Amino acid sequence: MESVSHCREFDIPFYRRYLIDKELRPGSWVEIEGDHQESEKFVSEIEVQDIRPLESSRDLQWKSLAFDLEVIDEDIVMASFYSEKFRKVLSLKDTDLEFVEEVEDQAEMLERFIEIVEDQKADILLGYNTDEFDFDILRDKADETGVTLALGRNGERMKFNRRGRFKGARIKGRMHLDLYPFVTHVLAPGIDSETLDLDSVAQEMLGKEKDDLSWSEMKQIWREKGDIEKFAEYALKDSELTYQLGEQISPQILELSKITGLIPFDTCRLTYGQLTENYLLREAYSRNMLSRNRPSQKKRSKRDREQAYTGGFVYTPEEGLYDNVAVFDFRSLYPTVMVAHNISPEMLGVEACEDEFIIDELDYSFCQDEQGFFPELVENLVSSRYSIKEKMKNMEEGSEKYSSLYSRQQAQKILANSFYGYLGYSGARWYSRLSGFSQA
Questions:
Q1: Residue 139 belongs to what domain range?
Q2: pLDDT tens digits for range 235-246
Q3: 203 and 130 housed in the same domain
Q4: CA–CA separation, 168 vs 265, rounded Å?
Q5: CATH classification of the domain holding 256
Q6: Residue 73 — left, alpha, or beta (φ > 0 → left; ψ -120 to 50 → alpha)?
Q7: Number of alpha helices (DSSP H) and beta strands (DSSP E) in the chain
Q8: Strand pairing report for 45-53 and 64-72
Q9: Phi, psi of 413, deg, nearest 5
Q10: Structure confidence at residue 403 as a pLDDT band (50, 70, 90)
Q11: Which residues contact residue 405 at a Cβ distance below 8 angstroms, ignoring those fewer than 6 apart?
Q12: Distance, CA of 436 to CA of 22 (rounded, Å)
C-alpha cells in the first residue's frame, strides 16, 4: 500500500502477541468467562468469551519430575527418574536394587517411560541437556519401535520446535524445562567453573557431585556384565542432581516468565538479550509505544563490524599480603549509572532539550527533561528488588514465602543487569552502541 511507509511489530510470534495484548503473564492466575466444550484433545476445553489477569498472592504448587538416559551402543540401557517422593531406574538388565525395574527391550523402555510420566502427574519435566541429547534419542527410538511418544497431559504426542540455532522438545500440558540452556545463557557469568556439565554445575551450586564412574567404566560394566548395581546408582544420581538443581533454578525461570511474559518453555532457552527484549516489548505496549522491528541480517552484520567499546579502567593490584583493606562495592553499578544519567536510546541527542547530560570527550548527550524508557524500567526493577530484600530480612530463611521472594528478586536482578549488555547486542530492536558505551 502506497499510504503505508513501513510496518512495526509484525515479527512478534502470534502466541507472544496474544499474551502481550491480553496482559497475561504465565504462572499467574487468570479469570475466564466461557463455555465448556466436549474435547478429545484436552483435559478441559473452554470456548472463551473473555480472559483477564487476576490479582492473587497465592503461589502455584508445581510437581516436578527429573529424568536422565544412559545410552550405550545406540540403545537406551537405563532411564532414571527422581522427584520428591519417587525414584526409579528402568534397566535392560536386572539388579537386586529396589528402585530398579527391568524392561525387555527398547519398546518396553519407551512404554514404561510414558507410563511413569503420566502416573507421576508431573507438571514440570526436568532435564539437563535434554533438548540436544535425551529427547533426540527418545525420538529416534520411537521411530525405530513405532511407539508414540504420548507424553502430553491427554496423550498428546511430543513435538520438536526449532527457532534459529535453538531447538526444544515441547509437551502439551507439561512444562519441559531443560536447565542446561538457562545455565549456559543466564547463570554462567556467576559460575566459576569453566565447564557447565551437570557434575561441575552441581558441585558449585549444590555442593554435591556425581558418583565416580567414567564413561569407559560404564561401557565395560554393561558389556561385560559387571557391577550393574553401581551403574544403576550412578544413573539415579544424575536424575537426583537434576531434580535438586531444578528446585533451585526452576523458581527463577518461573519468576522470569511472570516478569517478561514469556512462557517457561521459552524462558529457560532464550539468551539474556532475548529475555530483556521480550520484557521491553511488553512494557512498551503497556505505555502505548510502538516497538522497533528486529534488525535485518545485513544490519546485524554491519553492527557486528563496529568497533567494540572499551570497558572502564580496572586496577590490577600488586601481589602480596595487605592489611587495613577497605572494600567498596558499588551497588547495582550499571543500573545505577543508567538511571542517574537517564541513558536510553530515545534520549540520545534529543534536539531542543533544556537539560542535557553531555559527554564532552565524545560529543554527544542524553536529554534529562523527562525520564527515559530504559531508566524507568531499570529503576522499577531495582526498587522492587530492594523492597523484597527488606521483607526477606523478617522472614525465616528457607520458608516457602522466603524462597518465593528470593526467586523473584533474583529474576529482577537478572533483568536489571541485562540492559547494559542488551544495548550493544547486534540483534537488539533497541540497539544503541553509544548508550551502551556511555555506561562502560
A1: 64-266
A2: 999 999 999 999
A3: yes
A4: 8
A5: 3.30.420.10
A6: left
A7: 15, 12
A8: unpaired
A9: -65, -45
A10: confident
A11: 388, 391, 392, 395
A12: 32
Query: What residues have CB less than 8 Å from 31, skipping those under 6 apart?
Result: 51, 52, 53, 54
pTM of the model: 0.88
Instruction: Encode pLDDT of 333-378 as tens digits.
Output: 888 899 999 999 999 999 889 999 988 777 889 999 999 999 999 9
Q: What DSSP character marks residue 362?
A: G
Q: Can you give the CATH number for the domain in which 410 is found?
A: 3.90.1600
Q: Residue for cell digits 492466575?
A: 29
CA angle, 386 then 388 then 392, to 5°: 115
- What's the one-letter identity of residue 122? A
The Cα-based distances of 410 to 61, 274, 395, 414 in angstroms read 19, 18, 17, 6
SS (H, E, C) 382-426: HHHHHHHHHHHCCCCCCCHHHHHHHHHHHHHHHHHCCHHHHHCCC
Residue 260 pLDDT: 94
Instruction: Name the domain boundary from 250, 266, 282.
Output: 266
SS3 379: helix
Give the amino acid at 26. Answer: P
CB 248 within 8 A of CB 205: yes
Are 92 and 77 spatial neighbours (Cβ–Cβ below 8 Å)?
Answer: yes
Q: What is the pLDDT of residues 23-68, one digit of tens each?
A: 999 988 899 999 988 877 777 788 889 999 888 767 778 999 999 9
Is residue 165 predicted with pLDDT exceeding 70?
Answer: no
**Arithmetic mean of pLDDT, 107-133:** 96
